[in-house]
Amino acid sequence: MQYLCLIYQDEAAAAERPKAELDRLYAEYADFSANLKKSGRLVGLNRLQPTRTAATVRVRDGNIVATDGPYAETKEQLGGYYLIEARDLNEAIQTAAGCPSARFGSVEVRPIWQMQV
Amino acid sequence: MHRLEGANPSWFKIVKVGAVSSSAPMDKLSGKITAVGDVDVRDTIDALYRDESRRVLATLIRLLGDFDRAEEALAEAFRAALEQWPRDGVPENPRAWLVSTGRFKALDALRRQKRVEPLPDDMHERVAADDGDPASFDGEAVGDDRLRLIFTCCHPALAPEAQVALTLREICGLTTEEIARAFLLPAPTLAQRIVRAKAKIKSARIPYEVPGRADLPERLDAVLRVVYLVFNEGYSASSGAAVTRHDLSSEAIRLGRLLIELLPEPEADGLLALMLLHESRRAARSTPDGELILLDEQDRSLWNRDQIAEGSALVERALASRGFGAYTVQAAIAAVHANAPTADATDWARIVALYDVLLRAERSPVVELNRAVAVAMRDGPAAGLALIDAIMSGGDLSDYHLAHAARADLCRRLGRTTEARASYKRALALAQQGPERRFLERRLADLK
After folding, report:
1. Are residues B325 and B393 located together in one domain of the fold?
2. Which of B290, B318, B346 lies at the terminal end of a domain, its last residue?
3. Could you give the angle at the alpha carbon of B161 between the alpha carbons of B157 and B163, nearest 5°?
4. Which residues of chain B neighbour A94 with C-beta distances below 8 Å?
5. Are residues B322 and B382 part of one domain?
6. Which of A66, B70, B204, B446 is in the most buried spot, having the most CB atoms within 10 Å?
């Protein structure tokens, strides 16, 4: 079964992190991703650009209405995701707990509803 | 606490039980006992439903991989027992019979369904793996099934109120209506909570398993929290539904016993001890018309000595281990009170020391408040008042009625009547429950 692990963290705090700390974090992420890949549980991953680059789109009465910013203002922002394969929710939670941002941000684990396209 | 009237499965009424032989010879060939009469068979089945149906359900959920399917299978198994046992006798191992019959009926239904529509993915394997091996539904795995059920119902991915509802429904076997009554909620609300929780177990694939060593402490905490929540819901209630809610405390104690039987962990001992020691005072903590009686004014001859003895022994056992936590320490405090022959003979020095331990395990303003009250008893009201004022200056407890009530009480004992009156009034403005409000009103009136 697939789970999407959505990584939320305080963007503003992340931007102020000293370089040495950032380097350490990137290294941890590289290890985490490499281990996931090696175990065969990694389906996909991406890091998102900051929310200030976001646009939110709605169609109302046939008109496209685009606004700046994310859908909701929250204390922590979606910063990236891992799509993983796991036996069940417990394994997915264990895996998500290994994500470096889980220590200061949070990781939302959502089961995937497989769609045919 | 299982009541057939409550759990009332309708098939108990529909099925006619035929006459059977009035002797009870052991049929050695088939290993079956012929029942002595239809009433006896009915009694046997009633008792089995009461004592074993949750165990059977726990195993059926593992074998069938689905709560609803397992519940249907459980009903089918009891229906079959009512049909067959009066005629054929009660099987030697009724529980294994019920599991195997329930499973057979469920798989049979699925095979028939397979001809019409595709089976759910997970069921192909289960139908294929149907080897009928009785080892998989009796023996050691079965004890684990009840633990699996407990840990699944109390999974942290479920909302706390859903964990409570599911636990009472699936593990305790209460009906949706009973749970709704106990929590003063409309039955459809409660039913929806349970349906959603089961749907989440399925769609997020919450596994039916006992957590591994690494996760166990945290997952056990979640289970204990649910049990204690159920207990407190029944214990703190003093409204009109008090009788129904009392049942919740008994259910929680039963859950606590089940837990230590299945999983001997110090904090499970501690929680059961805490519940027993609180429960031991039930008869003494309020007047017949529901007015509160404080600990130091309670008639100690009304305290339940058996519960105190059992609770105290559990506390000792938990304290002797290395892994105890906050429940055990709270139970130890309750045990000091329970074992004091009179309020004046209470060992307040020990209670203060235990609060110090508790504060190290879990620093909270409420624990600090309780410690301050104990200090007041050990060193006099002035010492306690200084501590309470220091805690309240932090602002944490400014809306907590018991903090104001405790402060009022110490001021009263120091003869600072004006301050006492102001604090009682503040407590009264914040208190919600009728008996607490009336208690505070009496105290306020006594000041004059």
Report:
1. no
2. B346
3. 50
4. 215
5. no
6. B70
